[in-house]
Design brief:
alpha+beta, five-stranded mixed β-sheet, 2 helices, about 15% helix, about 35% strand, globular
Amino acid sequence: MMMTKLHRYSFWLLVLCLAACFGPRDSNTNSGGAGELVTPPEGIAAVITLDNRGSSAWIVRSVVGQQVTETGENSPWSLTVGERYTVVNTSNVQLHPFALIDEQGNALVSQVNDRFAGALQNDPGINVVVEGDSTTFTFTQALADQTDSYYCMTPHPLMRGDITIG
């Protein structure tokens, strides 16, 4: 069967796309094939990647490092006092901002610094760092004493998971 020019171009375009998606990664990163994180960055106990199912649930897609939770919908987390964590929110941050809240639903630490800013957002011990879709914080005793759950601050009441001290 004779290949036409269009078929040849389509074939090589497919090869280039596959190479870009599944090709080798920079060996200086903490990622495996296709950008998968295999170890957390230095000083981070765990990286938790969240997504959403509409406004009905947070979905834990992956946990790298300390196994603080299982993957799934609104999975309960067990965080250790003194450890530093990064939460990567792959949902639309404007529609689904991540936060740690107390029993009354008040934000303690939040992914956004607007009307949903957390009461402990500027605590130097917690050292909240928000960069794009990532929120990094230290789970101090002060934060542990008040934290009830993780939550979507827009609010979507079903997007909530329990947090316990591990």
